[in-house]
Structures are given as structure tokens and as C-alpha cells.
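Q: Could you fold this chain for me?
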Amino acid sequence: MAKIVPLFSGSKGNSYCIECSGEGILIDAGRSCKQIVTALEDNDIDVKRIHSVFITHEHSDHCSGLDVLARKLGLTVYGSAGTIRALRNSGKITGRVKTQVIETGEAAGGFFVERTNTPHDAAESCCYTVTAPDGRVCTVATDMGYMTDDVRKKLGESDFCVVESNHDINMLRCGPYPYVLKRRILSDVGHLSNISCAQEIANLAQKGTVRFLLAHLSRENNTPELAYQTAMCEFLQMGMKPDKDFTLDVAPEVTMGKKFIY
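A: Sure. Below is the predicted structure, expressed as C-alpha cells.
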């Protein structure tokens, strides 16, 4: 059976582990190598079974521990051509790290991973759809200013969806961030708001995709309760019942040992 563990999620760092059939991959490495390895061990994940890491884009909250982690564990780093180039040009990975450009889809061990571009202010950001060795499918889609048709399609084909619910619009607008940063977050290459996420996943649930994990919450402009309630209200307004018609969870900023089996 396939399972995903949200090791870290939020504006301070992101990393997810997907396991199945005795092997695992990581999506993003946005905390230090030590923190990621400790989180894996705390969740009873054998780090020796992790063979690959897929990077969504080059922003630090997705790759700050990448270079040391890849070298220490001997991981292959996958990403779009633009992301790999940006990682090397910025010095976030060194020449000693093995990289592989993922064009559309790539086999990594027993997993098959597909890349879908996302609208974000990075070189060539993307989300990933992972088909596990047992055939179960999970999509991790964060860091996008809006939901594209291509991303929506991949989520609709998945058994489990990790979707960005970054900020409450009112909290952001009334908060302490500079105007330029607020404008960037709210733009089409920024981040998905609670209400945008809620509307998207509720529509997906009506079409048969029913398991959702809200992710990449802003510490300053959101709360887990607010993200959850915003999405729950959207589901209830459509007449859907929790745990019958859909499941909804919020990824903690730091893992609390919860694994999601799908």
C-alpha cells in the first residue's frame, strides 16, 4: 500500500515522503539535511530506502537542505530543466550531485512520476503526480497563483491530493507584509488562497476525487483552523458529508507522525 508523510509543510520549509513496497521518494527538501533525516527516522522510515528527490522549484523553502541531503544519502535530484539550471546557477546544488531532468514523466525505482507546470514566480516550477508500485496515485500541487486545467486534470486522476491552501486573503491584506510582497502572493504567479483551494477541491470531490490534504499554509497569513473551516464550508454548501463523501486534513508545519495511506 502507498502512503505519504508530510515531513514539513509551510512557508518555513516543505518536504514530503511517499513510500510503497519497501522504497521511497521525497518531494522537495526545504529543511536542513539533519532535520529531514530526523523527521524520516521519527516516522520509522528507513533513509536507506529513499533513492530520489523531486524538486518543484528553486525557492529556498523547497530546497534549502537539498545539496547536503542528496550527497549524504546518494539521492538523484529530479526537476524541470529550468529548475535544475536555477539550482546549479545559484549554488544550491553542487557538481557532485547527480541530477536528472524530468520532461513529462520519469521512472524512479518502482515509482512513475509525472511533471505538470505550475504558475509561480520561479524558473520552471511544477507539481508532481506519483504513481506508486501498487498503482495508487498521489499528486502534490503547491506554489501556484491559480489552478490550471492541466493541474486540475492530474488532481482529478489521483487517489490522494496534496493541495496548497496558503493564505486567508483578508489576513494577508491586513497583515504586516510590504505591499510589494502582498501583491506578489496575490498575483497569478503567487500562491493559492484558502477560498480558491476550497472551491477547487470541492468541485473535484463532486467528480469523484475525495481525499485531500491542505498544505503550504503561511504562518503569518493563515491558521490551520481557518484553512480547514474554509474548505469544509465549501464542501457542506455542496451537500457533501465529511468522512462519507470526502476526507479533509491539514498538513502540520512539522510532522506529528501521521501517515496517510491511500
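A (continued): Residues 136 and 159 are 6 Å apart (CA to CA).
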